[in-house]
Write a structure and sequence with these properties.
This protein has 457 residues and is of the alpha+beta class. It folds into 2 domains: 142 residues, 2-Layer Sandwich (60s Ribosomal Protein L30, Chain: A), CATH 3.30.1330; 277 residues, 2-methylcitrate dehydratase PrpD. The protein has 19 helices and 9 strands. The chain has a 5-stranded mixed β-sheet. The longest helix is centred in the middle third of the chain and has 24 residues. It is globular and about 70 Å long.
Length: 457
């Protein structure tokens, strides 16, 4: 099994990898299908289903779909250009993507939120349609946004398309037990095996350049969040808190009044900074999702800024180890909140972060696996119940606690020898089964939990 570090960590935009990035990428794929068609399209329609319908407005799914159909992509997204494009589309009722004629599209009538008809393949479903001059559908495609910015057509999902396309990698582990067996037989760390897999498909220079950029975007996101204040968009009136907390922490530095547990505030503020940026629609790194984007950057920043002997030379090992764990979770369970609740998002991110931190602090492969298991185990059953469908409450603080759990899990694992009762594989399978059993109310539909017990205005 091979899932690249650059598939697990993708530069994108907030507020959601599955509800914002995914639909935008699906729209881009549909444009390519129109370009390849032997006929000319006159217009486009779209319908959103399941979780994409229920929490779509709060996650800017409608906006992302329209911008994707206009030719925008998460990687090169410009907020200023997007605003101008949305205004033009609203006025002209047309889309003008590159290499296609102008396409009729009225945002008020050609984008439908279908709350009554869920699609069978996944909770995040959408249908994109091209029409002729009479308004008849001449091309239609069902897409599923399966979490973390990954998109599949209904045919790909039905065929079981997975991450094994391409040549065989040196260490194709599909489970944590296989990962540990291969590590033991080769004498390589998890990061070293993951690196070998990556450079079997790209050179080391490209890998290093890519991981450096990933951390650069993550760290810039933290810094922007620490310097920004105001009210987050969406109508809940949620105030940005990271800057105020950070300023207070900086003022307290060097004072003898601070308590030892203040270090938890540092971890939390780094994560909250990222998720406030995400909630505002800023540039983030999907890690493994946007809703959980703060956990891994916060843990890595904690390591670099607060752990004696930390080195930037270890950033790549941290990210490679984390992506190896994330790949196992995605392959064997899910990283989608709409599919398995927040245990699949913040829980997965916390496990990835714990593994990465344990690795760069000298942990053995067995200790790394133990750290990931501890972190994931203590997120089992966590629901996804965003108030008003916005990735704000409880999501922002939840990332801070996910980072704290990751650091605690890594520390506990390092205190042991790697032997433990519950394996990571068993924990991942438990998470998968829990997700299946979980009520749909608690899987990113905003139909249960905090979403219905907190006023939405």
């Amino acid at each position: 099994m091979f899932l690249s570090v650059f598939e697990m960590f993708k530069v994108g935009i907030g507020p959601s990898s599955s509800h914002t990035m995914g639909p935008m990428l699906a729209a881009a794929r549909f444009l390519d299908m129109i370009r390849a068609a032997p006929f000319s399209a006159h217009g486009i329609r779209a319908s959103l289903h399941g979780s994409l319908a229920f929490t779509g407005v709060g996650h800017a799914t409608d906006r992302a779909t329209i911008l994707g159909l206009a030719g925008f992509s998460p990687e090169t997204y410009s907020a200023e250009s997007a605003e101008a494009a949305m205004a033009t589309i609203a006025e002209t009722k047309t889309l003008t993507p590159d290499d296609l004629p102008s396409l009729c599209f009225d945002p008020d009538s050609d984008l439908i939120f279908d709350y009554d008809h869920a699609l069978p393949g996944h909770a995040n479903g959408m249908i994109l349609m091209a029409t002729d001059a009479q308004g008849d559908v001449i091309l239609q495609q069902v897409f599923y946004s399966i979490g973390g910015g990954f998109v599949m057509t209904e045919e790909e999902l039905a065929a079981g398309k997975n991450t094994e396309d391409g040549p065989t990698v040196p260490y194709p582990f599909k489970s944590a037990s296989e990962m540990l067996e291969m590590s033991g037989a080769s004498g390589k760390s998890i990061a070293a095996m993951k690196r070998a897999n990556e450079i079997s498909r790209m050179d080391q220079a490209k890998l290093t350049k890519g991981t450096t950029r990933i951390w650069h975007v993550m760290n810039n996101c933290i810094n922007r969040g620490l310097q920004s204040d105001g009210i987050l968009p969406g109508g809940l009136g949620v105030k940005r808190r990271a800057k105020g907390i950070y300023d207070a922490l900086m003022d307290e530095r060097g004072m003898n009044l601070k308590a030892p547990h203040t270090i938890n505030d540092w971890m939390s503020v780094y994560a909250m900074a990222v998720n406030e940026e995400n909630a505002a629609g800023g540039q983030v790194v999907t890690a493994p999702t946007n809703g959980a984007a703060g956990v891994i950057p916060a843990t890595l920043r904690y390591y670099l800024d607060h752990v004696p002997g930390a080195s930037t030379a270890h950033i790549e090992d941290f990210l490679l180890t984390a992506s190896a764990i994330g790949g196992l979770v995605k392959y064997n369970a899910s990283i989608s909140g709409a599919e398995a609740g927040c245990q699949a998002e913040v829980g997965s991110a916390s496990a990835m972060a714990a593994a990465g931190l344990c690795a760069v602090m000298g942990g053995s492969p067995e200790q790394v696996e133990n750290a990931a298991e501890i972190a994931l185990e203590h997120h089992l059953g966590m629901t996804c119940d965003p108030v008003k469908g916005l990735v704000q409450v409880p999501c922002i603080e939840r990332n801070g606690l996910g980072a704290i759990k990751a650091v605690s899990a890594a520390s506990l694992a390092l205190r042991g020898d790697g032997t433990h009762l519950v394996s990571l594989d068993a924990c991942i399978e438990t998470m998968r089964q829990t997700g299946i059993d979980m009520s749909e109310k608690y899987k990113e539909t905003s139909l249960g939990g905090l979403a219905v017990h907190v006023p939405n205005c």
